[in-house]
Amino acid sequence: MENVTDRTRNPFGMTPPCEAPCSSDHDAVYGYGDANADFHVVGDRPGTHGGRSTGVPFTGTDGARRLQSVLHEVGLLADSYADEPTVENLFWSYLHVCCSPDGETPDRESYARLERFFDAEFRAINAHVLLPVGERATDHVLREYTAQAQKLDLDMPALHADEVRGRGYLVVPVRDPAAWTDTDRERLVSRLNGVLGSDYRQMSDLGRFLPGDEPYRVR
Hints:
Blueprint: E1 32-33, E2 39-43, H1 46-49, H2 62-73, E3 90-94, H3 108-125, E4 129-132, H4 134-145, H5 156-159, E5 164-165, E6 170-171, H6 184-196, E7 204-205, E8 217-218
Parallel strand pairs: 2-3, 2-4, 4-6
Antiparallel strand pairs: 1-3, 5-6, 7-8
Helix pairs in contact: 2-6
């Protein structure tokens, strides 16, 4: 089912219970991008991956610039960097959209309180390819949306730009861009180009079980 909205910032009108705004202009760093995207980039929080002043995930940090540069090179962003990127078939969001006071880290309860907002938006987007960025986001995606979490070590240098098959999703873990080595960028570019050139949509045709010749495809 296609989402009908032309909003790129917080397209589903989420209202998470943030204790304080991120800035004078932004209550939180909401999900941003194409509401019908095939690619969903999942990050941790504004204090880790940026966006406090812009209100857009993965902006305002050196790591954000590195990641945006890769997404631009493979055709998912119009520019190599922008505070309000023009996206193509891409959505990105954080597990924890609220901003904590400088120097503070959200506790487990705070993440748990915001999880339902992330999950509702995640399922509304219903992307085919998930790109969790950093250890926390990768751990969450592997646990919640694949059956591989118990089989894989959470070794981000090793998992970076690999492919993990999930429950209807293709997962490509991404090492935190702030920690990238010389080869990490090219590994991710190569992997994403390979995915984009493949049939990455994990669909099954159940039409063979129904009368008639029409296909019936589901995730």
